[in-house]
Amino acid sequence: MSVFAEKLIAWQQVHGRHDLPWQQTRDPYAVWVSEIMLQQTQVSAVIGYYGRFMARFPTIASLAEAPQDDVMQHWSGLGYYSRARNLHHAAQTIMREHGGIFPQDFAQIQSLKGIGRSTAAAVSVFAFQQPQTILDGNVKRVLARLHAVDGWPGLPLIEKRLWVLAESLLPEKNLPAYIQGLMDFGATLCTRSKPRCQDCPMQGECQAFQQQRVAQLPASKPRKAIPERQTTMLMIMDAGEILLEKRPDKGIWGGLWSFPECKPDQIPVQQAEQRYGMQAESLEDLPVLWHTFTHFKLEITPQPLQLIGKRPGLPQHLQWLPLNDAIAAALPTPVRTLLKTLQQSRY
DNA sequence: AACACGGGGTG
DNA sequence: CACCCAGTGTT
């Protein structure tokens, strides 16, 4: 038996949970109901629902013949209602195809609606003491740390490795205690954030701990590259002042002052003339600036312009700002950066 | 406001 | 197999 399994069983006997309502039985139906309720739902939330559900639907037959509304009422407040619909549906399948007896064959268990490999394994172990392993999110985290498995566990290749690893660690004795320990250990000690490594009996086995990579494992889901957008900002100058535009309240930098943006495919000098009635000429380019938001990256091309001739009258959302004005402190970061760059250039 | 999650569904 | 979804809690 693996050292991990030995230690986990010992840990479970001291720190694990032994007194939960569904742990007092080997009735596959009771185990099944509890496992479905426990999917993505904490033990504390499940306890009351489990008691009321089992009191109202004590057998597979009673569940199968109950009206769906009745089943849903007993699920009301637990969330993920497709679980209840699948449970009801599978109860009817068991009545129809298995003579009302919960199947012991692993493939048959797994083919029931709402039961995947992990839930099928839990029922197999707790009800029938068959050698199967679970692999839910908690267990993935525990095993990824134990063997320092790199890569996001949602990747098929990584998940396959974790299943193989989980199988290889299974003990021959005390299987239910081991599986329960796997669940409880991941839920209470080897947690995603702030795992209690100082209290952990697996320090000697845990490769992530020894490599000081506990906080980095399991690897998080690679987020897709955020989209990139491009804008050109007009920096129109005249007599030591620069033109600013108040942005619409909606959207990025809502209500803040910024440089007027050049419409895509517009030529800056032409836009200055057509939209603002300004005669202007281009000045020397400034370097392109990147700014990262939560959901996109913005490439900002600054276009310094010099006003020629007299200033036109301006609507309220446009105004001239002295280059050294204190208002600059309240501008969006990239705008302030551009102003600073401008001041350091020869203009 | 993004991430995490077990199972289902689709191509 | 690859990919995405629904629905709820957590960070």
From TrEMBL:
Record keyword Metal-binding present: yes
Reactions the enzyme catalyzes: Hydrolyzes free adenine bases from 7,8-dihydro-8-oxoguanine:adenine mismatched double-stranded DNA, leaving an apurinic site
Alphabetic keyword roster: 4Fe-4S, DNA damage, DNA repair, Glycosidase, Hydrolase, Iron, Iron-sulfur, Metal-binding
One Pfam family here: HHH
Lineage: superkingdom: Bacteria
CDD domains tied to this protein: ENDO3c (cd00056), NUDIX_DNA_Glycosylase_C-MutY (cd03431)
UniProt key word Iron: yes
The name this protein goes by in its record: Adenine DNA glycosylase
Gene: mutY
